[in-house]
Write a structure and sequence with these properties.
The chain is built from 17 helices and 23 strands. It is of the alpha/beta class and 536 residues long. The protein has three domains: 15-49 and 264-347 and 465-532, 3-Layer(bba) Sandwich (FAD/NAD(P)-binding domain), CATH 3.50.50; 138-228, protoporphyrinogen ix oxidase, domain 3 (Orthogonal Bundle); 349-463, Alpha-Beta Complex (Polyamine Oxidase, Chain A, domain 2), CATH 3.90.660. Strand 14 and strand 15 form a beta hairpin. The radius of gyration is 23 Å and the shape is globular.
């Protein structure tokens, strides 16, 4: 994929109004601007682009909210990213990359030196571990001597018995996330490593969460595959960036923009505007006017000026939360059936807080064999039940350019909550202190290591699979027949999409317009492993 030559938009050209400036919305705008005569206009409610994949700059230290590995099993997405940013160059004049079962050569013209320019995709090593019992465990769990030593003989025996029992007598049908985990890992291993963390994320027992979440997030992963992967990795090289045959949870390498994920989307916005599109920040879509089976116009509010504007469009793409979309249609006069309104209004979400701490050092150190002064983890899953923090990012290891002073350690503590609850409502100072105390309590840092801090709250980070979601099909059934409305992205579809999944929903929607396809089924089919087709 190459960046097409910018072309002027013809007067009176068709117009697409795109709600949301995250990966799905901006991908849509770029695809429309470069492949069609439809002029895209993006409305982003915040004053920063990227959605959940934005990068927040705090005194030169950059925060990646939630962690975004640039990896996909889709050639189309990988090519799209590469067209936006060259890969990091190597010492060789050309670099061969094993790419989703293909072998390709990247020449010097396709690569760049991150020391000389910023728009570069770095190749990074992936390491995630679990912190439990004040010890580190491999993630995914492996049957290594380290695991055996950390857990102890008695617990290992219980895990083995539980796994064998689960394989011989699986729970059928799988109705809950608990059933899903127990069938793949056994009850003892589930209780040891999955139950507490998952309940931190969702705020509910796993028995009350749909098994569909597990099917999308950890589909195909099991003890058998984890062991097989560990054995195979001893005999194969790790140069395959795309790693098509590796389940997502076992990825060992990924690409990453030098200055964080938001850099990709800011660059994308520049290219959209160069091709005649428009990207407007600080604009909230408050009303959508529905006439028959088509949306005619949107009413938008500019936070900077306080003014409201009505804008007509030929196509409408929504990445806003489904509950807000239905509310905007109601506000615009649409006759939305009561059950659809009620289900949309009740759709559950989990919200997210990142506490950024700038540290003098970490108390935990790498093993002697690893070398270096800093552990190599990108993020650490905090399984300890006596703290609220769920996950810890070490931004130095995502990209060294995210840290203003390379002698310092820049980390993000991730807390899962619900907007308005006790955790969400704490002051920034209280949250920063909570982070300091919790990391000190579990032995990750010394209490006096914190040099500075910041707090970021993100609403509706995780669309949840319980409660009113059980009736979500009726919401989709009412929205899908609206001919010029396309639901895309994570919140737009109330689906736990990864970044690449969100992009693929956008690409598929544009493909449909070009092909004259009116059915939305292939958009909803995006987001499963292997071929990215949904299988409930």
């Amino acid at each position: 994929m190459s960046d097409p030559t910018p072309k002027p938009q013809a007067a009176g050209a068709r117009r697409a109004l795109i709600i949301g400036g995250g990966p799905a919305g901006l991908t849509t705008a770029y695809e429309l601007a470069t492949r069609t005569d439809i002029r895209p206009v993006v409305f982003e409610k915040l004053d920063i682009l990227g959605g959940i994949a934005r990068t927040v700059n705090f005194k030169g230290n950059r925060i990646d909210i939630g962690g975004h590995r640039f990896f996909s099993k889709s050639d189309r997405v990988m090519d799209w990213w590469h067209a936006m940013m060259p890969f990091q160059e190597t010492k060789a004049a050309e670099q061969t990359i094993d790419y989703q079962g293909q072998s390709r050569t990247v020449r010097m013209t396709d690569t760049a030196d991150p020391a000389l320019r910023d728009d570069v995709m770095l190749l990074r090593s992936r390491r995630s571990r679990i912190y439990f019992l004040r010890k580190f465990f491999d993630y995914p769990i492996s049957l290594s001597m380290n695991t055996v030593r950390n857990l102890g003989f008695a617990r290992m025996v219980r895990i083995g018995i539980g796994y064998v029992r689960a394989r011989l007598l699986p729970i059928k049908p799988e109705k809950s996330l608990e059933d899903f985990f127990v069938n793949r890992f056994g009850r003892e291993l589930y209780a040891t490593f999955f139950e507490s963390y998952t309940e931190k994320v969702w705020g509910l027992p796993c028995a009350k969460i749909s098994a569909e979440w597990g099917a999308q997030r950890v589909k195909g992963l099991s003890i058998t595959k984890a062991v097989a992967h560990a054995l195979k990795s001893q005999f194969t090289r790790k140069g395959d960036i795309a790693q098509k045959k590796v389940e997502t949870s076992l990825i060992e390498q990924f690409l990453y923009p030098k200055l964080g994920p938001g850099q990709m989307w800011e660059l994308c916005a520049e290219k959209i505007e160069a091709h005649g599109g428009e990207v407007r920040k600080g604009i909230e879509v408050r009303k959508l006017e529905l006439e028959g089976k088509r949306i005619r116009a949107a009413e938008v509010y500019d936070a900077a000026t306080g003014k409201t504007e009505r804008m007509e469009g030929d196509y409408f793409f929504s990445t806003m939360p489904v509950k807000d979309l239905i509310a905007a249609l109601v506000a615009g006069g649409a006759d939305v059936p009561g059950p659809v309104r009620e289900t949309a209004a009740g759709l559950p979400y989990r919200d997210f807080i990142t506490v950024g701490l700038l540290l003098s050092d970490l108390k935990v150190k790498p093993d002697a064999a690893e070398g270096g002064k800093l552990i190599r983890d990108n993020w650490i899953y905090i399984q300890e039940p006596d703290v609220l923090v769920g996950r810890l990012q070490i931004f130095n290891n995502w990209s060294p350019y995210l840290v203003a002073d390379p002698t310092k350690v820049w980390v993000g503590l991730e807390y899962f909550c619900t907007e308005g609850d006790a955790l969400w409502s704490r002051t920034d100072a209280d949250l920063a202190e909570l982070g300091r105390v919790e990391l000190s309590r579990i032995g990750i840092i010394e209490a006096g290591a914190v040099l500075d801090s910041t707090v970021i709250r993100v609403e509706k980070t995780y669309p949840a699979y319980f409660g009113a979601y059980e009736q979500f099909d009726q919401v989709r059934a009412w929205l899908d027949p609206i001919e010029n409305l396309f639901l895309i992205g994570r919140n737009g579809m109330h689906r736990y999409n990864n970044q690449d999944h969100s992009m693929l929903t956008a690409m598929t929607a544009v493909d449909n317009i070009l092909a004259g396809v009116t059915d939305k089924a292939n958009i909803w089919a995006v987001n499963t492993e292997m071929e990215y087709h949904e299988k409930k």
